[in-house]
Structure formats: C-alpha cells, structure tokens
C-alpha cells in the first residue's frame, strides 16, 4: 500500500511535487477520512479533532487512521495539504479574476482576498500545525515559494517598478500576518476590513 | 530590593508602563549584567548565553543572576526590553529623521530602516525569546501597539488616504516578517535589499 509522503510547507502547508498516485480505493478512503475530519472541525474546532473522535466519526479503526496519517500532526498536515493544493489550482488555472484572463493587478487583488478568506477558515488549523515551531520555516518552504513566484509574475506582467522579488516577499508577508492574528484581534481587524486594506495596497501599485 | 517586573511584548519585546525606579546600585548591577550578556552574544551568539557563562563573565554568583532575572527567558526578555526602550525613545523623541522634525514619510522610511537594522542584530534573540510560542501573542502586546500607533500617526500627518489603521498594521507586518527570516534566506534577501524595498513601499504612499 502506497502511503503519501507527508510534505510540509507554509505553516504546515505542503506541496511542491505531486504526491504519488494512490490506488483509487486508498484515495477514496483518504478523502473520506479528511471529510470526516473537516466535519469535526466545523462542529468543535481543531481542538476537538482527536484520532479517537475521527475513528468514531468515520467508522473505522484507529489503527487505520494512524497507518494513513502517522500522527495527529500528519492528519493536520494532510488537511492543509488538500486545501492548499485546491487553492493553488484555483490561482494557477482556475476561472478569472483569480485565475488567468483578468488584468494582472486584478488577479493580485483576487489572490489576496482569496488568501485572506482561506486563512479565515484555516487559521486555527495553521496555528495548530505551527505550534511545534514551524512558523520560522515559513519562508523556505515550497508552498510559500509557489505563491511568491505567482505574485512576482503578476507584478512583472503589470510592469510594476522596483525590486519585484522584495515587493512580492513584502506583499505575501502582509497576507501571512493575518494568519497569526489571534481570535481576539479580529473584533477590530475584521477580515472584510483586511480584505479592503489589501485592495487599497494593490491600488497603490497601479499608480 | 525592588526587582523589575519582567514585561513582555513584541516577540518578547517588552514595554508599556515604565519600570519602577531601581536603587542606583541595583540599576548599575543590572546594566553591567546586560552588558556582559551582550558581550557573550557578540562572541558566541544567543545559544552561547547561559546563566553559568554569564556568572563567570560578570564575576558574580549565579544566584545573583537568578534573583535579578528569574530565568534565562527573563534575561533574554530584559535584553530585548532595554533595546526596545532605546529604540522607542529614538523614534518618539530622538533626532530627525527618525525622531520629530523631518517630514512624516521620511520619518516612516527612517523607522523601517532602523527597525530592519534592529532586527538584524536582535533577530536571534527575538527568535530565542519567541521559541516558547510567543509569536502568536505578537499582535496584542504593548510594544507592537506603540509602533502601530506611531506609524498610523505618521500616515495621518502625511494625509495618506484609505484605512490608516489597517495600513499601519500591514506596514508593520512587512517589517516583522523580516524578523522571522531564517539565516539561510538572508543570502538572497539581504538586509540592505530589504531596506531599499521598504523605501520603495513608503515611496508608493507619497503618490
């Protein structure tokens, strides 16, 4: 049985090389387990997601879950992996304005808004996954690089001046800061306000 | 004997209310210990700074150091505290362009450059101090708030449009991202390049 290698990336976000093709029943089982895990998180948050609870929810033995994900950290990583891959597919080849077809700075605005939206639902998961001290690794991992390359490419297409590599790094840092916002700060810095702030930042690049 | 309360702030950066006035001999002893600690860090990095080593270097008993700082974490916190207070004094009331007297966006450019410079020397200390998971608390602590209020005030003076509170948050996030750069990333993202990138960002606010 082919176990996917747990890849880790931005805050436990994974990625880079495609995972090995799984046998279709193994892939189905994996998807079903991840769906069950998401259901538990929707109800009780990340803290409520234990291996025991997942086994009960999915109606499988705990051994199956450990064989599949290795550990709770591996499970969190797999959840983030799935979400990040889906997001990457959307900004690389999905519909405009996030995907190709819209003007580059409209795509950049859409990227930021989508990323903020993603963080709003995935924030706790990312924080749980970073609790082991992964925050420091955030800047060297494949998922961050993919987003940085994407942003830099849009900036170049828009013929924005200056040091594009640094500007892409800085813009991504703005989005990632939101990731670290503790729930308390969100009373003032609401996600819709942060999204408008992102639009304003992108608008400054148009001048 | 009055022990200063260990305050913690941005990445273990402290601050907010002034510390109680210490007896002058106690203050001198504290300053001497912090100087010795900085000397050790200059030579062997933060990892080289142990309580034993500091006792030897400063020629005092280990008990004195524990009474003064409580723990190694307390010592790191005190080092950051001192540096952050000095930096705050510089941007609040020091000479222009960092302090008052220069045009507000020149002060903002100077603030970022000084902060980047500060991170370049204090990065390891900050990382060591955040290793216990303090990164998440970064956005609710007094030292960050002081810098955010300062940046927002400069933006208002410069009559920059848009949501100033969010823009100040975003600009500070850019600077803090540098703090998390692992030593490896600095080969490409040099501090002088990041400083120029900051200037470019501030220039976009002038338009």
UniProtKB/TrEMBL annotation, chains A, B:
Residues 50-69 bind DNA. The keyword DNA-binding applies. The lineage of its organism: Bacteria, Bacillati, Actinomycetota, Actinomycetes, Micrococcales. This is TetR/AcrR family transcriptional regulator. The keyword Translocase does not apply. Gene3D superfamilies: Tetracycline Repressor, domain 2. It comes from Herbiconiux daphne. Residues 1-25 are annotated as: Disordered. Keywords: DNA-binding.
